[in-house]
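Hello,

Our lab assistant flagged a job as stuck in the queue for most of the afternoon. It eventually completed. Since we weren't sure the result was trustworthy after the delay, we are filing this so someone can double-check. Below is the sequence as submitted and the structure that was eventually returned. Let us know if re-running is recommended.
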Amino acid sequence: MLRVDHPRFRSALQEVENSIDAAWLALCAESDVTPGTPEARELAEVVLQDTSEFDWRVVDGALKQLTCSECGSGLGAGPLGCAACDLANGFRFAAQETDRPDAQSRNEHALRVSSAVARTRHRYSPRARAGYELALPMLLAGKIPTTPQAQRAKDRINQLTDDQLDQLIPCDGDL
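-- returned structure --
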């Protein structure tokens, strides 16, 4: 079974998508904007003008509302080399990260990066995908690997072929 087909990975990815959708819907409600309307697309463009003013889930929600004028993909999710998507993908990393009360410190940063890789996996190398996707369920649970755990996992990942990497399944505990 490929990692992307594993129920633990699919469930974790859906949980991330749900949290992004919920954050976007909350901003729309707060702004008195109906989701899916031209006004919602305008709101998304406003969010992207200064992503540092918003939580990363709101920014990712805004990106989901827009289509890239250059490649036709969701903005920030197009192929590497699409200048508009490369720029928009970078904007996502300027957004705010507020650690959740039940999570370890800096977990939110790791979760944001891991989910960005998992959601736009074609933009990242097989080794980067493996590392971030394997950790996603643990990060959603509020944990973060220690430096030695992360180094051990990276060492193991670097010893595998691309085909072997795709066979690795997400962990639910330590890396």
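-- support follow-up --
The delay was a queue issue, not a problem with the job. The result is valid. DSSP finds eight helices and no strands in the chain. Residues 7-30 form the longest helix (24 residues).
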